[in-house]
Every structure is written in C-alpha cells, then in structure tokens.
Amino acid sequence: MNISNLLQPKKIAVIGASERGGSFGGDTCRNIMDFSNPSKYYFVNPKRTEIFGQKCYNSTDEIPTNFDMVIICTPQSSVIDILKQSKEKGCKAAVVYASGYSETGTVEGKIAEKELIETCIQLDIALLGPNCGGFINYIDNVYSFAFISEKRDRKGNVGLISQSGQLCLSLMDNPKGKFSYVISAGNSSVITMEEYLNYLVEDQNTKVVAVYLEGVSKPGIFVEALKKAAIKKKPIVVLKTGRSEKGSQISASHTGSLSGSDKTYDAIFKKFGVIRVNDMEELLSTAHLLATIKEYPKKARLASMNLSGGETIITADMAYSKGLNFPDFTKETLNKLNQMLPSYATPNNPLDMTATLSYDSKKYAKALKTVMDDPNIDMVLIGYTLLLNIADPCIYYMTEGIEKVVKEGNTKPMAMIPYIENTRNPEYTERLEKAGVPILPPVVYAMEILKKFSDFVEYNSENHTLELALPKNTRLKTKKFLSEHESKTMLAKAGIPVPKEQIAKTKEEAYEIAKETGYPLVMKIESADIPHKSDVGGVKLNIKSEKELGQAFDEIMNNVVKNAPEAKINGILVQEMLSKGLELIVGVNNDPIYGPMVLCGLGGVFVEIFKDVALYPAPLNHIEAMNMIKSLKAYPLLTGYRSSEELDIEALTDLIVKVSDFAVKNKDKVVEVDINPVFLYEKGKKLSVADALILIQE
Amino acid sequence: MNISNLLQPKKIAVIGASERGGSFGGDTCRNIMDFSNPSKYYFVNPKRTEIFGQKCYNSTDEIPTNFDMVIICTPQSSVIDILKQSKEKGCKAAVVYASGYSETGTVEGKIAEKELIETCIQLDIALLGPNCGGFINYIDNVYSFAFISEKRDRKGNVGLISQSGQLCLSLMDNPKGKFSYVISAGNSSVITMEEYLNYLVEDQNTKVVAVYLEGVSKPGIFVEALKKAAIKKKPIVVLKTGRSEKGSQISASHTGSLSGSDKTYDAIFKKFGVIRVNDMEELLSTAHLLATIKEYPKKARLASMNLSGGETIITADMAYSKGLNFPDFTKETLNKLNQMLPSYATPNNPLDMTATLSYDSKKYAKALKTVMDDPNIDMVLIGYTLLLNIADPCIYYMTEGIEKVVKEGNTKPMAMIPYIENTRNPEYTERLEKAGVPILPPVVYAMEILKKFSDFVEYNSENHTLELALPKNTRLKTKKFLSEHESKTMLAKAGIPVPKEQIAKTKEEAYEIAKETGYPLVMKIESADIPHKSDVGGVKLNIKSEKELGQAFDEIMNNVVKNAPEAKINGILVQEMLSKGLELIVGVNNDPIYGPMVLCGLGGVFVEIFKDVALYPAPLNHIEAMNMIKSLKAYPLLTGYRSSEELDIEALTDLIVKVSDFAVKNKDKVVEVDINPVFLYEKGKKLSVADALILIQE
C-alpha cells in the first residue's frame, strides 16, 4: 500500500456526510466547505440528497467516477463493508475516525483492529486511524479532518504527526501553527507513526517535522527515517510520552501503544540528533523557531539585547541555569557599542541597551548589526514583551530597525524572547515573522528551547554511527546467567582484555594455580547459579600465602554449601589480585525493541544514588564512546582531578567500543552484560575487568 | 523617618511637572490625570502656569498648603535643593527618579548618593529611589509613577517591590497584574528593599508580596520581615538575581547592589518558607495563583482533569519530572466517575475525562465535585487551553460548571493549566478568576509553580528556628587557620565528640603516647601552617608497631622539613586509628552578611563532583538538621542501602546541631569549619570526627 494515495488523493468520498455540528460527518463536511475545493469531494449519505448545497449520493455506487480515498465518518460496525464497497470504485486509501479498537484494552477491540488491518492488507488500502481525527494536507489543500477550528490560513512548513487528535487541534488553534501536513494518526495500526514520519522527512514542502509520539510499532522504519533526517539535517522535534510510570500507563490505554523504555528513547534521539521536548508549548515553539529562522548556524553562540538592566540579569541567570552561555563581545564590538550607548551603560553580553536606542530605528539597526557582526556571535536574541495593545511605541522602531537589517542582507538568525506570557500584537508578530524573527515563549521555556536548538545545530551526523542493532522479532523464553568465568571467557573471545584466572576444582589444584599466578590472590566461587557471589560468602580477597589460600578454599565451600545448597558449582576461581583503580561500570541492556544499549558510569553505590550513567545505542564508534564518557558528571575524576593523575580514558573508550561490538554480534543471544567493577588506571596503564556477568537467552 | 509618609501621603507636590511625553515630569502628570484624584496633587514648574488644565505653581513656596510628599522629576543636580525647600513645607517623603548615583559605579556617583542619604537623614525625609520609577498605592489611589501603561483597573492584593522599573511596568502590562502596591525601588538607598518588604508583610491589604531583588543592605530588617511572614504564613515570592556570575556582575552595575552568595539566599529562603522563582513569568503567575485562590490548603495533593488522553499523559509526565505526583482516587471516587464517563474511558488521576462531560455544565459540575470531594485531593487542576476567540463552546459549559460548584460552597482550590501559550479570552478569564480559578502559564511553568506552591503550603514555621546569627558589621582583617589539634580542642569544648589524640614533640613522647593509646595508630603533622597535611607527606595511617611508629615519625618530619620548611611545627599528632564508616563532611561557612551557614554532605571527591551538599542557616534544631540530611541525594546510603545496615542518623543530626551552636556562639570569630571526614557508623555506634580544620579571624 502506498502512503501517497492516502496523503495526496485526487478524488475523495465522504461516507456518513451530514450537516450536524459536533458529529464526524458534519464537521468533516463543514471543514471541506470552509477550506477545500468541493469539486474534489463526493458526499455519501442514504438519508440526504444535499449537504450545504452540494449533492449527496445514496451510496458509493452512485458516485459518477472512481475515487482514491474514502473518509469513513460512520461507526465501527460499518467500516469493513464500506472499505470493500470503496475498493470497487478504485479506492486505495481510507480515513477511519471510529473508535472501539485496541485502545479499549478489550479482547473485542483487539479482534476488531486485527480484522481491520487484515482487510486493509487484502484490499491494499492505506488506512489512517482508527480512533483518529483525520489529516490535512495544506500543500494540496486536502482537508480530511474531524475537528473544527477558527478559519485562518495555516499553510507553512511544519509537518505534524500526532497520536492525539486534541493535540493537533491545540497546535492549529495557536497563531504559531503553520503547517505542511497535520496528521492525527490515532492507533496508527495500518499506516504507522514511523511511516508518516518517513514520508514527512522525505517531503520537500516540510522543513521541520513535529511529532507527538506514544509508541513505535516498526522500529526498522523508525530508525531509517531518523537516519535520513540526521543526514539531511532536517529537524525532528518529538514530544515522546512515558517519562513517568503514570504517563506510560495512560498511554497504553490511550492508543494501545507500548512506550518502551524511556531512557532508550533518550539514547536513540541523542544518536540521531532528534530534538526531544517536554510539552506542547515546547513542541510548537521549537518547531516554530526552526521553521521561521531562515538558515541554521553551525553553532549557537548567543547574544542577547535587552531594554532594561533587570531583564538583562534574568536572561543571564536563566541561560546559565540551562547550560547556555553568552560569549564576550570582541573589543571592537564593545568599542562600537560604547559609542552608541549612553554614558551610564556598560556594554556586556547579555546587553542592557537601556531604552534609549529603541526609540530610533536607525540607531537600533546599527546596534543590532554591530552585535550581529561580532565574530563570536551566531544568533541574536531580542528581549522584549510584545503586548496585544501597543502602549509604548518602541516596538515600532525596533521592528523597523530589524526589517532594515534584514533588508540589507547578511543577517544572522534572530529570535524574540518575551519576559512574560501575554497576548501578542498580531501585526508586529507577523512583521517579525516575515523578517525571520520568531517570538519564543518566556524565558524559562525560551532558554530550554535554545539549549535544544544549540545541541541540534552542533549535531554532526558524521560523528555518529547511524544505525541500531535491531534484534530479531522473536524473544526467546529461557534466560540464564553465565558464571563469572564463562562471562569473561565469552568477552575475551571478543577481544576484551580480562585478567588471568583459572578454576580450581580441588584445594590441590588451587595450590598449583597459585604457584603460577603468584600472591596476593583473589578467590571466588564459580557458579552460574550464583550471580551475586558476595551475598553468599563466596569471595575472599587479598590471599597472601598458601596457608591463607587453604583456609579460604574451605571457608568459601562451607559458606556456599550453607547459603546456596542447590547451586551447581564449577569450582573456585583463582585470580591475580588486581590493583585498585577508579571503579567504573560498563554494561549492556538489550532493549527488546531497539537492541543493545551500551552503558557506562561510575561504579559502586554511586551508579544508583547519583544515576550518573551514560546510555547510548550500539553500534558505536570511538567518538561516540568518548562523548558518553564526557557526558558523565564524574568525568573530571578521569581527567586528573585535584592532585590525582589523568586516567586511561583511551582504554575506557576502547572497552566501550569492544563491548558494543560484542553486543551487536550477539544481539539475539545476550540480554545483559554487567562488567562491574572495571578498574581504570592512570594514563598508559589501561584498565582491568575485575568482574563480569552476562545474562543470555536461549 | 516613617515609610507611611512615603507610601500613604495625603498631599503631594510634583516638581518638574510638564506635559511632555517620554519625560519623567510629563508621564508622571499624565498618570496622575489618568488614575488619581488631581486635588491631592500640586504641580510645580516655573516655566508653566497650567498642566493638562490644572494649575501649575512657580515654586513650592507658592503652594497654598503644606504637603507630605514630593515627587522630584528634575535632574540629579537639583535634588538636594528641592528636598530642602520641600522640608520648609512640612514634607516628610520624596520620590527621586534621577539617576547618576552609585549605579554608575563612579566615585562621583557614590559621593552624590552618600550626600543624598545624609540629607534625607538630616531632614527626616523618607526617600524612594534614586534611579527609580516611583510607586503606586492602589489602595489609596496614590499614583507617583514615571512610566505609562494601558489604562485599566489593576487594584488587587499583590504587593510588588522591584529594583527594576521596567519589571514593574511589564508586570502591570499583563492582565494578571492586580496590585495593592507597586514599588519601583531603584537604588533603594534611603528606604531600603527590606523596609518596603517589612511594610508589605504588615500591610493588611496585601495578601502576597512579590519581590524582584538584586541585593539587601539591612540584613536584620530583612530577617525580621521574613520571620513575620513565616509566622503569619503570608507568601513572599522572590525573583532573586545572581544565580550566574554574569548576572551578579550586571546586578552590581545596575543598582550598585552586591548580591551576596546565591546559595546563602537559597538556604535562608528555605528556612523562612520564601518562594524563590526563576523569571518574571513565574514571579507574576505564582503571585497570581496565591492571590486568586481563596484559601490555602494544608497540603497540595493534586488532581488533574483533562479533555484528551494526550494532554492527560503530558500532565502526568511533567508533574513527575518536577517531583509532583497525583495520588490515586479512592474506590468511591472511581466508581462514581465510572458511572459518569463513557465506557471507553478509564478513570485515573490525572483524569482523561474525554470531551463528552465538558459539553454539559451539570455533568461537568458533578464530575468536578466528585474529584474535589475525594479525601486524597486538596486541589484540582483543570487542563484546558483557553483561546482569545472561542471556537469550541465547551469552555462555556465548563465555566458554568465551575461557577455552579463554587456557588454551592465547600470548594477546594482550583487552577487552570493551558497546554500552549496563547491569547486568553478576557471574559472567561475574568469569570474564572472571580470563581477563584487562576489561569497558570503552560505545563512546564505550571508544574514548577505548583511544586513551589506545594512546598509553601506544607511549610510549617514551627519546625524552623526563625532567626539568623547575624554577625557584627565589622569584618576583621587577619584570618588564620588553627591546627588540627587546636581545631578539635575548640570543638571539644563545645561538646563535640573528638577521638583520643596527643601531641608528641619527640619520638620518645610518641612511644609513650602509643603505650597508652594502643595500636594501630595514625600520625599527622601538627601545625597551623599546614592546613592540607597530606599534600606535604604529613600523614601516616595504620601504624602497627613501635618500629613502624619510629619510622613514620622520621618520615613525616623529613617530608615536612622538605616540603614546608617555613611551617611552625607543634609536634606530631598521635591518634587512635578510627574504623572507617561512611565518609561525610560537616562544616560551616560564615557568610559576611547573614552569618554562619551549616553544611552537610557526602565526603571525599563526591562533594565537589556531585555537589550533593545541604546548606542551612544557623541556628538550627534537630528537625532542621534532619531535613538537611534527608535532602541529600545520598540519603539512601544512610538508611540501610541494599544489604548494608542503617547508619547512626541521630548522631549525625546531633553533630550538625552542635556545630551550628558552636558557629553561632563564635559567629564573630570563626570564619570556616571543615570537619572532613566524619565517619558515620551503624545505628547505635555513633560517629567519629576524623579531621577538623577551623579558620578564624582576629
């Protein structure tokens, strides 16, 4: 089935057409009459002959021509028959508003959805929905949408896909909402979210893709779409739900989607440069920023120009709290500004211009251009709260100044930041937008959005391995731990360095091994049934002599017999005693949907207490491994903290890459890898894998 | 001088009155004509006889009566003379707009400000400013303000004090801005910020105090005002700048204020239950929330009612990310909701009501009341994006439903949360506000505000020692470290338990001490000149015999002679070897303005890497000490993490309280205390002060 048949139909039949407000049929017809060319639509309803003055047919049979797409406004029970009848008329696509499918969480609902999917596959019909609000194609003016909004031109370059219909409507209700496509995908059970995403990533009329996402059903297509966007550097802004347990629960009953692990999505979005936002305000405003500014800079080193000292200080504080900073202006810029500003002003970035310059458009333009021309600056933020009713005329001069600079060419991107939410004057909003200046929401939001913008523009797809190691779709049922020695042996085969160790089945064997290895030694019970060896008294450290070795052997065996009587014992592992380094953890969580996610963090209790862990999808290269390490709060401990030496970061990146490769190669077998602790030593002295635990499925 | 003379004057003279727009004189007169009773004002300008139809006098002499207050619209050079002339006419208060004082950062500016202050003290004139925008008293309709805003009724119950004039104007420009007082305090060099704060805390017409604060000059009055507010539980919402270094720098040049340490302010605000916000949007919206809802609950357990699944999920996610949670409804509530909602809906908190109920005001009221009556719920959030132009009629039914519930009495607080910033319909905004329902900004802001609201309503002043140990105003110049032994001796005198230790001046003395103490031992160089003993090789641990002791003595001495040849040595400290516990740090930073701040956190490198430190002003009691400990991220390590034992938290609170008492008693002497590490042991086994360092001033 072909998604273009759905989103770019030439002739459309509306089944269940009516004039009744608040009904799918009535509101769809009303929308068509308001926004689309009625000659492209046929209305069908056996009870009517005319709708809003246009002919209404008894049935699809009576429609004089074939049609590509059918909008089904009638209840669930009628859907399958209508699809079949429509097929007779050449129909290749359908929109189904009706609910009652998998989102109900009932067996009946799930069966109905399965039947719907199978029918569509059989008939080769690309279906939007069910349980959806329809879609609008603003490029070709196709209006197949069940909700009423204010009559207004909304054609723009943001492509919106949403698993919530209300969210589409809210974004359309906002003056910032300018779209190429709005797609309310509902359960997205035939054509899926990721297929719409892929379509919009490829669509030339769409500059920015905005997505409200509850879950993904075809990870392969999802990853392909993200990869294409990363390479093109087309921004995808995603509001992905499921950060909270409650949110995930409600998601599951909303469109029947399973969210998957939230942290996995964060990791994937990082790899592909996807912008993840927190709420609808951020979704719309980030998309609006990316859609409105004309060219994306390579970096986002910001300048800020304000009319008051207080507002300048607030801007500095909040930018700092979001990890943004305002670089210093060059001496040349400062000199020029000093000449323009009143004597009591101190030029700085962020800049308190004082109000004086903003009452003269030429002076304002000159100051703006001066800041813009600073080589340390990539983008200029204009701090000003635009009101609905203009009381202070300075916005007139400021806008004129901005327009002057834009007209003269060679501008850098600009955005306006209000200090308080307020009604915004539509005339100036439009003029600023035309000049490529979006108005962001107030400071806290604005700084969050700009941080994401900054990350986006600095994202370079060449530094990332743009693929995931997606697992086969079958999950095996039996999971089991490997013993420490088995785990290490498996890792060693993959080129991961593990310390010397041997299994002693008897005390005598232990003595022999010790002669070879030398003291001090470590002894650990070796059993796949005892993943947590310390808990059963199965570990003895710092054994210094044959005598101590003998005692330790007996003690471990006694402890294990007592504490884990049913465990199958391979023997006792005799290892060289490793010198202690910085304790780290390197591991793998194999996500059932997206495959192995590699993790790295500070070891010990601190992983869990401070959650200072980097997670990133395999496969990955050395740059990506390095960026994982750098993203840790504990990173300064590795680079030579206070009087301590720099540690062997190269060895650590190497380990991470090898673990990633190992996980990719074994993606259908290895469920978890936990190398904990890794001892990281001083630069040049590498690291040691002190313990390892692998969980496999069979 | 009396602040009431300034803020509640009966008769006012305006010097430099004019009709010229954009000038202090012109805009002040324009404001008076627009908003105040002109019979209370006299205009003075030798160049005019009439202003906007009202008589204008040549000089203050000519004014037929005495006046209480003078508004000086003329430049800096004229100010002192006008104050003197006004005094002749009984004047007790003045507003000075002119700039050119300490905010310039110049010597001239500082001299001018000093002269101004001295003149006011001499003449007993309560002065607002200089470098300010004036004030408005909405209660008595006194309008002494230099900026023009839209003509509109703004009388309400938020008292605003700001060190930025533009900020006052922006808050007044917003429809949410409803005030008792607006005070643009400028440099606040005569009547200070904290005196305005104190006034508004006491003012019966002010329900909420909102403050934009760059710095404080009279900490005693500041603390008194905070204490009064804490006891009354009158909310103070503060936008305190200086979170970032840049922000602090610009602050310093803006009103000549010194911010003080930002973390100190956080600690003080915690003690007194002050609400600290991030930007102007939060300042206004938090104040608006607190001003609009009729009664504050004791807790803020929230329910959320939304019209769509997507919006419900976003609400759940964002609340979670801010540390808010929605408690489950009782079975009774769920049963009732199940009967009201369509079959496909799953009641939950947050609640996806689906759109159905919102098109019938009775049904909506019933659902709202059901949620409100749940005993687990203290406050109801209504998720809805109100538009300027109403396209969807549901807001009509929802508002009617809300009004119905309010009319029937016994309501719990409500607030509306939009999902996107937008223009808001004024009619419904007003009706909702009248019903006690404020409209908050969109979700990210709203959840941040509600978290602060929740902390505020749960704040109980009885659990806090509502005072600070303010230091004397004189800072002593000579600072010096005490040696470890001197530091511990000083702490021991204050009842803080320190381990056994003695100073050995010779090796022989060391042997003698060792006989008494027993092995293993620790030896450390004892010198006030060596605060960081390890760095010079001055520490030896785990000494097990007389032989090792002799070697260690020599090594330490040799190291110190080599590495710190100029240090005065008291000998070598011989201590029992302490068993290791969890490493913590307890300390004191004596803030030059606000006195000792007690700190507690995880020891070692983790203090600095993870910044997991609690800071709280002395004096403090056991509840406050306990709350400091609980606020640490590392707190789970103390309560029995995984298989480890619970630690002696009681001993730790006890230590914190004793250190606080010690710091209070020595507030003018002790600059810093650093007890690091403290070893905390299992419950019942107390703790050990392993090392201590005190910095004193003389």
From TrEMBL, chains A, B:
InterPro entries, per database record: Acyl-CoA_Synth/Transferase, ATP-grasp, ATP_grasp_subdomain_1, CoA-bd, NAD(P)-bd_dom_sf, Succ_CoA_lig_flav_dom, Succinyl-CoA_synth-like
Q: Which Pfam families match?
A: ATP-grasp_5, CoA_binding_2, Succ_CoA_lig
Q: Does the keyword Ligase apply?
A: yes
Boundaries of every ATP-grasp domain copy? 488-524
Q: Which UniProt keywords apply?
A: ATP-binding, Ligase, Nucleotide-binding
**Cross-referenced PANTHER family:** 3-HYDROXYPROPIONATE--COA LIGASE [ADP-FORMING] (PTHR43334:SF1), ACETATE--COA LIGASE [ADP-FORMING] (PTHR43334)
Name of the featured protein = Acetyl-CoA synthetase (ADP-forming) alpha and beta subunits
Origin organism of this chain?
[Clostridium] ultunense Esp
